[in-house]
Specification:
Elements (H helix, E strand, L loop, with lengths): L2 H5 L7 H4 L2 H8 L11 H5 E5 L5 H20 L11 H5 L1 H4 E7 L3 E6 L1 H10 L12 E7 L8 E2 L7 H13 L3 E2 L3 H6 L4 H6 L2 H10 L4 E7 L5 E7 L2 E6 L3 H14 L5 E9 L4 H12 L4 E10 L2 E9 L1 H12 L2 E3 L7 E6 L2
Parallel strand pairs: 4-6, 4-7, 10-14
Antiparallel strand pairs: 1-3, 2-3, 4-5, 7-8, 8-9, 10-12, 11-12, 13-14
Helix pairs in contact: 3-14
């Protein structure tokens, strides 16, 4: 059972729920998966070129894998070269949980994510957790060789799509691409993406599963010009994969949190049984900047919690808005955040 599950004291549960709490909490902790949540393996695992024989070469490979992970976990694209993070890179071997050879002369290295998080938190570094905006991509690829100009689809195997996907994996950004059926159903062709209005594409991208939307189209200089929109934030970028990096930089600025944990009081309604209580725990567990929590009271269908949150109440509110499983309630007592568990 997770640390957060252990920290929530079951004696606060009503008597009918208490007896079944341990078994049901263990079973239900994994039942809620945010649409764009990455697994811990995806966050804290990296593939790097396989080293030559020898401990020094292996240590160098572990250090390179750690640099990749730090870019993803801190949200900073320069994290791998940051002097403040050099102790983690230099002692990467200490954090390795397992490693194995992979095809194409690669070495897959998995790190102890909890230990890395603790080091980052203790040293005032940002942590960007598993819950990340899914980004829908509209990309009009120009003609190249024998390949005609086209809208890039989910089943595309072009070098351009591979480069975009690789950068998204490096930064930890879940991407959504249109399927052929989507293009047909919504009458989307190359011209629609290359020169069409942004508004309809942004709306349709959100309809098809994107919390953020990227539109890429050929620019006058032959490179890709990107437009990114997420909620009321936006930006424009130029370069084959700069749209992904620009989106990741924005998301990290919003959702990566650092600093000493601050107390936040949270009340969640709609918690009428152990399964819904476990859902609340699972939501909080997905937020890396929630250091710990305790249950203060459970009254009828409302659970009152005290959280220790890096970034304070504002960071928690942004993350819960992204997660979408809790709906904010307009109760203006000021001291406590009030939410309703969505069924």
């Amino acid at each position: 059972m997770s640390y957060l599950a252990r920290s929530a004291n079951p004696r606060w549960l009503p008597a009918p729920l208490r007896a079944a709490s341990v078994l049901l909490l263990a079973a239900c902790l994994g039942c809620v998966q945010p649409a764009a949540a990455l697994t811990r393996a995806e966050l804290y695992q990296a593939s790097v070129p396989a080293p030559e024989r020898g401990e020094a070469a292996q240590s160098a490979a572990f250090a390179q894998a750690m640099r990749v992970v730090l870019v993803r976990v801190t949200g900073r694209r320069t994290a791998g070269d940051d002097a403040a993070l050099a102790p983690l890179v230099g002692e990467a071997r200490r954090y390795v949980q397992q490693y194995r050879a992979a095809p194409d002369a690669q070495l897959i290295v998995a790190f102890d994510g909890s230990a890395i998080d603790r080091w980052l938190a203790q040293n005032g570094q940002p942590i960007w957790g598993r819950d990340r905006p899914a980004t829908f991509v509209w990309l009009a690829a120009p003609a190249a060789g024998t390949q005609a100009a086209a809208v890039v689809r989910a089943d595309d195997t072009s070098d351009l799509k591979s480069a975009v996907d690789a950068e998204a994996q490096l930064r930890g950004i879940p991407l959504r691409w249109p399927a052929a059926a989507d293009l047909i159903a919504h009458h989307i062709d190359y011209a629609t993406v290359a020169v069409g209005a942004n508004g309809p594409l942004l709306d349709l991208g959100r309809q098809l599963g994107g919390e953020g939307v990227l539109i890429g189209r050929p620019g006058a200089s032959g490179t890709i010009q990107w437009i990114h929109q997420f909620q009321d934030h936006g930006g424009s970028f130029a370069g084959p994969t700069e749209g992904v990096d620009g989106a990741a930089d924005l998301y990290a600025g919003l959702f990566a949190a650092s600093g000493a944990p601050a107390p936040v009081d949270l009340e969640v309604s709609g918690v009428g049984d152990v399964a819904s209580y476990a859902r609340v725990q699972n939501i909080l567990e997905s937020l890396a900047f929630v250091a710990h929590f305790s249950v203060r009271a459970l009254d009828a269908d409302r659970v009152q919690l005290r959280l220790a949150v890096r970034g304070g109440a504002a960071a928690l509110q942004r993350a819960l808005a992204l997660n979408g499983s809790l709906e904010p309630l307009a109760i203006g007592d000021g001291a406590t955040l009030h939410y309703q568990l969505r069924q």
